[in-house]
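Let us work through a complete example step by step.
Step 1: write down the sequence.
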Amino acid sequence: MRRFNVGDSVRVRLSYPTRHVRTPTFIRGKSGLIASVSGKFPNPEERAYGQAGLPAQTLYRVLFRQNEIWPGYCGPEQDTTVVDIFEHWLEEPE
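Step 2: predict the structure and record it as tokens.
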């Protein structure tokens, strides 16, 4: 069962592990909306070290407003970015 659904507000965990991760640094700690659910896949952060990556993790496409990601962003207010993020990196916003 997945934790989030399309339209849910989420926050990306603010964490900086020293091992291989798939969540971009610039998006950590930022809030966005679930745009779509891509399915369940083996965890690539574990697969990078030769592990099975199981149980599979739900992968979400999360929509972020550009002006909330980049300080001083001067583009149109409606500009967005979509980032694929695995469920274990997401939490409910504060």
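Step 3: interpret the result. The longest strand covers residues 31-41.
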